[in-house]
Amino acid sequence: MRVAIYIRISTDEENQPFSLEAQENKLRSYISSQDDWHVVQIYSEQASGSATERPQLNKLLAAARAGRFDLVLVYRVDRFSRSVRGLAQLMDELDSAGVVFRSATEPFDTSDPAGRMMVQMLAVFAEFERATLIDRVINGMERKAARGEWCGGARPYGYSIDPHTNKLIVKEDEAGLPPHIFQMYTHKRLGAKEIANQLNDQGHRTKTGKPWSRNSVLTVLRNRAYIGEVFFRGQYHSGAHPALVEENVFAAAQEILTARGDDRAKRAGNASDYLLSGCLTCPECHKNYLGHAAHGNKYRYRYYSCYSRLRYGKKTCSSQQFPADQLERAVLEALLETYQRTDLFEEAIAEVARRRSELAEHYRAELTSVETDLANTEAAIERYLAAFESGTMSESVCGSRVKELAGKAAQLRDRHGELARLCSQETEAAPTQEELAAMRDHIHHAVTNGSPPVVKNLVQSLVAEVRITGERTVQPVFRIPANDSMQAHDHQTQVRLLSGGVPPGGFEPPHTAPEAGWCHVVFLALTCGELPFSVSGAGRCSVHIPWWLGERFRHYGCCTRALPRAYPFFLCSPVVAASLPRAVRAVKDDA
C-alpha cells in the first residue's frame, strides 16, 4: 500500500515532544511494522492546525486526487486539523479521492462508520484543547498586562524590550525624541507632516531606519506607552516602565488631535503658505476650507474655498470663496487691534472668575460625593476579602467582585484628584496696558519680519477659528497668551526668539513650562461689520461655548479633562467691533 505521511507543528511547538523529526521517526517505525506498506511522499510544514489553507496540505490533497497514494498517515488527528469542520471537509476530499486516513497513535479505521465516528470525536477533543490553550494564553497575557509587562507587538520608539523581564526599558539613544515630538506638536503647534520634515532634516530616523513620515509621528502622539501604560485586549494598564512624556502634555496632544481631526483639509494645509489652514469651516456643508491658487497671465491668485465646492463643484456646495490675501490681512489687523483693548481683557477675566466660582461649587459638591463613594467602595473590598479569608465565600466569586470594585476605586481616585485640582484653580490677573503693548509689538514684529513658516505658526497658535458669519464677513476667534507668560519674558527676549533664537520651523510662543503657555481664560471673538465702521460704544463680554466643543464642555462650562490652562472658555462680545476703528471684512475679489 502506498502511504503518504503528513507531519505538522505549530509555530510555538518547536521544542515540544511532537517535533517534525520525532513525528517522522514514529511514523516510519509504524509503517515498517505493517505488511506491504511503503512511503511514497512526506508532507511537512509548520502552521496552525485551525487553518485549512496550508501549502503542504494543499499539495497532499492535489496528489490524493491524482491517485498517487492509497493512505494518509498522521501521528495524531490534531496534526491534520484542530477544527471539527476543517477535519470533516478534509475527510470528504480524501473519501472522494478513494484515500484512507489513519492515525499511528489512535485506533480507528475510516473505511467503516465506527472509525469515522471516532475520528469526529477526536476532532472535537482537539478543538476543545486548542480553545483551552488559547484561553490560557489570554489569561496569562492579562496577568502580564496587570503586572505592567509588555504584551507583544512592535516596541515604541524610545524603548527596548528586556528579554529577561519582558518589560519595556528606556533606550537612551532614542528616549529624547518622543518628548521633543510632543513639545513641537503641543507648544509650537506644528502639524505632523511638518514635524516629520524637521526630524528628517535633523538626521533622525525611525526605529527601522526609515525617514519619519506623517503617520509615524501620529503613531507616537497617540501611543499611551509614553505615559507609562501598556495595552491588551481593549484595556490600558499601568506599566512597569518609566514614562517619557508628562500626562498633561499627552492630554494636550490628544485635545489637539481631536480638534484638528484627520481630515484632508488639515493635511493639505499643514505645510502650505496659507496662514488660516484649518481655521475656516463651511457654514453650509461643515467641511473645512482649503487654500488653493489660480494662475493668471502675470500673477498667482490665492483663495480659500470649501472642500466640497472645490472638489465637486457649486452644485454640491454654493458657499463663497475668499481671496486669501485680503482675508489673512484682515484677521491679522484685527488680532493686533485686540491688544489695544485693556478693558476687554478685564471684563473677560472678571466674567471667567464669576463662572469659575459657580463651577467651583459644583466641583466641591461632586468632590464630596466622590469621597463618600470611594470610602464605601474600599470598605466593600475589605468585606469581600474578610469573607474569603473566613471561608464563607469562594475564590472565584470573591476574586471577580474584588477586581470589579478595585477598578471602580481606581476611577474614583482619578476623578478625586482631578476635582481637587479644579477646585484649587486660581484666576489670572488682567494684563496691564504695557504688557498688552509689548505683546502687540511682539506679534507685529513677527508678522512684519518673520518668514512664512514663522508667521503661519504664530497665526495657528493665536487664531482658534475664523467663523463665516455672512456673505462677505467673518468672525475671528483669538487665543490670548497668559499674563504670567508676558511677565516672564521681556520684549527683547521675545524679539530675539523671532529673529532666530528658535530652530527653523516656526515661532514658539514664550513659555517656561507647558502649562504656562496659555491663560485659563480667553478666546476673544470679534464681531464683524461693514467697512468703514464708526459706531462708538462698548458692551460687556458674555460666555459663549462653541458647538464644536461637545456636550461635556457645555455641561460643565469648561473642559474638565483638558490640560490645565488649556482654553476652557471662549468669550464673545457682540458689540466689540463697533468700538474698533476697523472691523474685519473679507472682500470678494471680483477680478
UniProtKB/TrEMBL annotation:
One of its GO terms (molecular function) is DNA binding. Signal peptide: none annotated. Residues 2-148 form the Resolvase/invertase-type recombinase catalytic domain. Residues 156-263 form the Recombinase domain. InterPro entries: DNA_bind_recomb_sf, DNA_bind_recombinase_dom, Resolv_N, Resolvase-like_N_sf, SSR_resolvase, Zn_ribbon_recom_dom. PROSITE patterns: RECOMBINASE_DNA_BIND (PS51737), RECOMBINASES_3 (PS51736). This is Site-specific DNA recombinase. It comes from Haloactinospora alba.
